[in-house]
Amino acid sequence: MNEKNILEKVMAEFPGVAFELIEENTDHPYLVIPAERTAGICRFLRDDPDLRLDALSNLSSVDEGEILTVVYHLFSYEHRHYSVLKVRVPRGAPDVPTVQTVWPGAGWFEREAYDLMGINFMGHNDLRRIMLPDDWVGHPLRKDWVEQEEYHGMGTSRNEPMDVLPLADAPEKEKQSD
Amino acid sequence: MYKPMSLVPSGEPGATVITTRVDDVLNWGRANSLWYMLFGLACCAIEMMQTGGPRADLDRFGAVPRPTPRQSDLMLVAGTLTYKMAIRTKLLYEQMTEPKFVIAMGSCATCGGLFSPGYSVLKGVDKIIPVDVYLPGCPPRPEALTEALIHVQRQIKRSRPLRQKHEDTKIIT
Fold first, then answer.
1. What pTM was estimated for this model as a whole?
2. Shortest Cα distance from B94 to chain A (angstroms)?
3. Which residues in B lie closer than 8 A to residue A132 (C-beta atoms)?
4. Do B83 and A151 touch (CB under 8 A)?
5. CA B74/CA A17 separation, integer angstroms
6. Is the ipTM of this complex over 0.85?
7. A93-105 b/e (C-beta count within 10 Å ≥ 16 → b)
């Protein structure tokens, strides 16, 4: 099945759900699904004999301003086909149900998306930071994130060496005044 | 010109006496047994391994790798240091016994280098520990690292350890 057929099959399976199928300006058609239906739709994608999207290849997140998008890249080892899903959530309340119950490997992906983008995966059994230190402030991949002045007494900026050091071809007087 | 060691005939046929200062004996020993702590953090570690290997052979300067800070004299910070690791690096530096020396190897260790715009990267090892030799390069070749080690040896040979008062290690920020 090609990517469009997969997504159309999903849309036919869940008739009452507000899907958005996007084919333009993209190499891979994708389906935007409502956040609250994520777990059910993902379970269908995994278990349907024609789809069998049994591997979550990647889970990533995008900051689009007012909206944060979570992107699911799926792969089927049995049928060798791919599929892409997106979930859009408001920036103020980025709550997405976890898909850990569908693909256990999603656990660490979701921790990463939480760590760097601040997406709250509801129902996740261990939603901690995975890469940054536990006492880190904020989520650095958000575009409005501002770096702290220092972290544990370590300054987070360094002077431009060309501004600090005297130039090799500068006159002698300027060098001495520094 | 002062010579650290000089040979003086002793009067006995075929025998000589070496005259020197205690400082110089200490420096001679310290400079020629710079055991460095393995501290590979990124791609610079590959060059560090190459330098320790048979072709560049850092061993001929008496420098051998140690896997623990307790037995090390030289910390060779090879690679990109993140804030998370920086806290551990400072702890490891404090665990080393005096006298101790630090080489900041590569652009990342000296100033953050290529990754300095990153939110998680420390902009230079000298923010947390004092650095004796800054070694530029991305990564520096084994010849350059050997040169940096020779620079540390020169610094040691110039020092007067018996005259130095023990001071708390200054942290440059």
1. 0.80
2. 16
3. 84, 120
4. yes
5. 64
6. no
7. ebebbbbbebbee
